[in-house]
Amino acid sequence: MADNLLTVADGLVVSMEYTLRLDDGEVLDTSTGGEPLEFIQGQGQIIPGLERALYGMGIGDEMKVAVTPEDGYGEHDPEAYEEVPTNAFPTDIELESGMELQVSDQAGEVYQAYVAEIRPDTVLLDFNHPLAGETLNFEVKIAGLRAATAEETEHGHVHGH
Ligand code: ZN
Fold it and tell me: What's the rounded mean pLDDT across residues 16-29?
């Protein structure tokens, strides 16, 4: 099948131009001025709500997709905060509000956390994703579609040019 007759389907390499805005119109991310995003469709390489909306699109097709928190980075969980004594952090780290940290629990499980607030003797960590609770408004355009190579399929990612 000629590439220009392809539509987005599992296992194809999708090349996608995109702009991502929050509900207030703030542009969070865009491929404008750079390279389109490339990924293998159907492998969870992009957020589920967006991936699902792309099926059947052809090269040159454009679409607006509003991804709810449920299909994006989850709802904001007011319980997902933890106050940690400042002296539990290595002294060579300069803690700043908004900073991203890797935190491991006693079982050695690693979590991503953000510094929500620095208090006199403690630090409040937020375990929510920074985009939790946000509706993600994508404008996308399919810039290219092609079959993945055997090697890409085996590796589960797109190889560079
Ligand atoms: Zn590889």
Answer: 95
